[in-house]
Request: fold
Amino acid sequence: MIFFRAMGCNFVRLYTKTLVLNQKKGYMNNLSKKKDTLMYSNQDSEKLVFNDNEWKKILPADVYHIAREKGTERAFTGKYWDHKEVGTYYCAACGSPLFNSNGKFESSCGWPSFFEPLNKESLNFIPDNSYGMKRTEVTCGKCNAHLGHVFEDGPPPTGLRYCINSVILDFKKEEDPE
Reply:
């Protein structure tokens, strides 16, 4: 119970609400092994609203830096930039499904690149004019974590390139049909 007290009232309310919702739906949250939090779920799509102090207590430092401080990992250093397994990519902050591997392509930019998300609702699009560039920031539709940017230089059929930081992605390999 010390963990919940340290998280504050908002976390306890979310914990209780999530637990009740999941019990009604007939399942419990699919918790990531690296996250000891009940807000991480691959099934629940309810929006999460926490302040940065609450996120800082929950997320590993590297994930927090990308997700909440809009950081960027160095090109060609992330675990998924040249990843080729078949499966689904999830937000590392909240577990929301973001991209399928069949939408991933090799762009040679040094970050995982996708030409389409699982669905438009899984992402938010925010104009970003920082550093003298005109681009569009991409955030998680569930928790608003910074993921990367989208550019209009991708392959058909969309012509888009979602350039996403590996640190903010989790991956679940597709299970072989039996």
